[in-house]
Write a structure and sequence with these properties.
heterodimer, A: twelve-stranded antiparallel sheet, eight-stranded antiparallel sheet, 42% strand, elongated, B: alpha+beta, five-stranded mixed sheet, four-stranded antiparallel sheet, 14 helices, 43% helix
Chain lengths: 404, 393
């Protein structure tokens, strides 16, 4: 193998596949990144057997070939270099990769590419020619625009502890011409949906690990906006593949194509629709930034006291303006009070929330105003951006309440 | 800085509450407590009853012997707890630094208030009397130790057969002088046995403690000896510990006579759980751990505790756990000298609700909410006793 490419492109590619590298595995080769030179492209690949990522970047190939090298060493070396051309040459006999850039000259010992697991892919005719096994399944196309935002608005609500594996996932539902993402850790629920142009022939719901979806969101940031993301779900419904097209050859720091393959979570996702409140007693409209600033200040005092922030909602008075009071206190540190103007329709209410949950959802709302709908102090509250319907973005958060 | 500490103590609290409900009791000898025929104990007795030599913690049978016309009323802990809460609210309006010692007793630190401490004491006393109709006595001093003793001295000085309503002030710098003539058992930590041991060495009054050599005291009484000397000098720097900062809340009862009857023990535990639960609620707290303290006839003390899966703040939960601990740690018929319930591992009484609690059975939840709201409304309108769980009857 003899190949040359730009440092910027290689660095970008390594950052994309790097997250799939297994940090602690009994299989040493899973700590490596595969480099494969073929058809004027350099393929980088990594997998921890739950997620696999292939990334193709532009390269000048003199001799085809493949090798795996330790991910961390290669990544840190490449990131230490100035932008410019990197030449790589593989010594097959010693399985050592020789890299040359500027006046640096390094040799990195690798493991035979034959030992690297096969990362499944799909062959739809317009990708690079595949050597790997192709997935059997159905494929649709998704607009990239807004997809990252959509993912960000949902994944944070997923559980991070593994006690209920299905809650570490995001339910991805394709129903008619609508794509919906939903995640819940048992204390809050985020649901985001959009209309899509292309639909699967029949409705489909799968549970994708939230952190894999986060990776997809990161990758899409650098995608070519004009070309939709291809989504393929295997017939056995055990894997999902996202194919993202990059800005390709001319742009420095870009990739041609990324395939992300994720195992799906087999367990059924809980029926969250049952807990979405059907009505409300109080509807509060408040400025998103002011609300976010207020909860951030409240957190300074709440973190010593079980993260409780108390919201006191007062309906519109004669002036036509209501109030949203936020208080947080800690026996040791002191307390904070904040009063926001708000449009409040309905009953007054005092309700306690975990301040971190409010920060998390408000941070994900770009719209100027948010709507908070509540019924009583031991009932869920819903938060959504003003102007978007429940259909599009809905966050449900359970309050904190005295037991019983 | 010289501190200003008030010790507040309601006068014959249970009796005063009963008098408010039944004015005909006024001026008559009566007591609140267990029935004489079931080895009951006097929890509280009217000042008219005290003229007969009746004291709290005395066996009710003995009390009736001393005063045959004594009326005996069963305690109504819920009502006492409710009214105690109102009293504590008045105290909290004076200063946030309130350390509640029991259902009818508290320390207040008023150092930051510009008024004279004695004026504040009279104001508290008159507010509690005016707003709730309850008599109280206060001790005023520069620390908790002297303030509490001052209350006792102030109350004891009144021998009218009516509520003492005393305010006893110990001015700064006069602590030693004030304590000197008192018997040693006025100090904390001096029970009958220590009193006897001290008396054996010629120490009867607090002034005797000062006269005794410090080394000798330390040698013979160890830590207690050193502590008693400090107390005799009127020294005490302990801060006010408010409910929110408290590490534990407990309530215990020493019986005048060892109790064998399990039902009596269970009843006392229930009352204690109600008091502890009430204090947790007022502090907005829940407890991770509930403990039961038992002292046997040989003075050995046993503490057993349970940590339920969720923190508890409900008197019924506390009571249930305490009763379980009693059942599993006491042989039926074993006589008990002291029994107590404690709550520790205090946390704010809120928990993050789960979505799935709702999803499980939304209708059942809604029904339970409705029930709770209805019970709350009834209690608000007709008092805490208007409605109870069937299991409590």
């Amino acid at each position: 193998m003899r190949v040359s490419c730009f440092q910027e492109n290689l660095s970008k590619g390594l950052s994309i596949v790097g997250r799939a590298v297994s940090s602690r595995s009994t299989l040493p080769v899973l700590g490596n990144i595969l480099l494969e030179a073929k058809d004027d492209q350099l393929r980088l690949a990594a997998t921890n057997l739950e997620i696999g990522v292939n990334c193709w970047i532009g390269a000048h190939i003199e001799d085809e070939g493949a090798i795996t090298v330790p991910a961390r060493l290669l990544t840190e070396f490449v990131n230490s270099l100035q932008p410019g051309k990197i030449e790589m040459e593989l010594s097959v006999r010693t399985q050592t990769l020789h890299l040359r850039c500027g006046n640096f000259d390094v040799n990195i010992k690798g493991i035979d590419a034959q030992e690297f697991p096969v990362i499944p892919t799909v062959d739809n005719g317009d990708g690079p020619e595949e050597t790997a096994e192709a997935l059997e399944g159905r494929t649709i196309a998704l607009e990239t625009a807004g997809l990252t935002k959509m993912i960000d608005q949902v994944v944070f609500a997923a559980a991070t502890d593994e006690s209920r594996p299905t809650l570490t996932g995001v339910e991805v539902t394709f129903a008619k011409e609508r794509l919906a993402l939903a995640a819940t850790d048992g204390y809050r629920l985020s649901v985001r949906s959009i209309e899509v142009e292309e639909a699967f022939t029949d409705d489909l719901a799968v549970v994708v690990p939230a952190r894999h979806l986060s990776e997809l969101g990161r990758i899409i940031v650098d995608a070519e906006d004009e070309r939709p993301v291809q989504v393929t779900v295997t017939q056995a419904r055990n894997q999902i593949l996202f194919r993202v097209w990059g800005k390709g050859g001319e742009t420095r720091g870009a990739f041609h194509q990324v395939d992300l393959v994720s195992q799906l979570i087999a367990d059924r996702f809980p029926d969250y629709r049952a807990i979405i409140p059907k009505g409300h007693n109080t509807r509060t409209v408040v400025g998103t930034d002011a609300f976010l600033q207020a909860v951030r200040v409240a957190q300074l005092f709440a973190r010593d006291n079980a993260n409780i922030v108390r919201l006191k909602i007062e309906p519109n008075g004669d002036s036509g303006v209501g109030n949203l009071h936020l208080t947080a206190s800690s026996a040791e540190m002191g307390n904070s009070k904040n009063e926001l103007d708000a449009m409040v329709e309905g009953d007054d209410l005092e309700i306690d929330f975990d301040v971190r949950y409010l920060i998390a959802v408000l941070s994900q709302i770009d719209e100027e105003q948010v709507v908070l709908e509540t019924t009583q102090s031991n009932r869920p509250g819903t938060i959504r951006p003003l102007g978007l319907g429940d259909e599009e973005f809905l966050h449900v958060v359970m309050p904190m309440h005295p037991p019983r | 800085m010289v501190r200003k500490i008030l010790h507040f103590d309601l006068d014959a609290f249970y009796c005063a509450v009963e008098e408010l409900r039944r004015p005909e009791l006024k001026g008559t000898p009566f007591a609140v407590g267990g029935r004489p025929e079931s080895r009951g104990v006097v929890s509280s007795c009217s000042y008219a009853a005290r003229q007969f030599g009746i004291r709290s913690a005395m066996g009710m049978a003995q009390a009736v012997r001393l005063c045959p016309e004594l009326r005996v009323l069963p305690p109504d802990m819920r009502e006492y707890g409710r009214i105690s809460g109102q009293v504590m609210e008045i105290l909290h309006s004076v200063t946030p630094l309130v350390e509640q010692l029991s259902i009818d007793e508290a320390f207040l630190e008023v150092t930051e208030r510009p008024e004279y401490a004695s004026e504040l004491a009279k104001m508290v006393q008159s507010q509690v009397k005016r707003r709730l109709g309850l008599p109280s006595s206060l001790g005023v001093a520069t620390n908790k130790l002297v303030a509490k003793i001052a209350t006792d001295v102030g109350k004891a000085a009144v021998r009218t057969g009516d509520y003492p309503m005393a305010v006893q002030v110990v001015p700064p710098g006069r602590e030693t002088e004030f304590l000197a003539p008192l018997p040693v058992d006025a100090l904390w930590g001096v029970g009958p046995r220590t009193r006897e041991r001290l008396a054996a060495r010629g120490i009867h009054k607090v002034s005797d403690l000062l006269a005794a050599s410090a080394e000798e005291l330390a040698q013979q009484f160890g830590k207690l000896g050193r502590d008693l000397r400090r107390q005799a000098q009127g020294l005490d720097q302990r801060p006010i510990v408010t409910e929110r900062e408290a590490k534990s809340i407990s309530q215990e009862t020493t019986f005048a006579q060892d109790v064998v009857d399990t039902e009596t023990l269970r009843r006392v535990l229930r009352q204690q759980a109600a008091q502890v639960g009430g204090r947790l609620r007022r502090g907005g707290l829940a407890a991770r751990t509930v403990s039961l303290k038992l002292r046997w006839t040989d003075f050995s003390t046993q503490t057993r505790q349970t940590t339920p899966s969720q923190p508890v703040d409900d008197e019924e939960d506390i009571c249930r756990i305490a009763l379980e601990l009693l059942a599993s740690n006491r042989r039926e018929g074993a006589p008990v000298r002291l029994i107590g319930v404690g709550c520790s591992g205090l946390v704010p009484a809120v928990k993050q609700m789960s979505i799935f609690d709702m999803a499980a059975d939304p209708e059942a939840r809604a029904r339970e909410d409705q029930l709770n709201e209805a019970v709350k409304a009834l209690r608000k309108r007709f008092g805490a006793d208007a409605i109870r769980r069937g299991s409590d009857l």
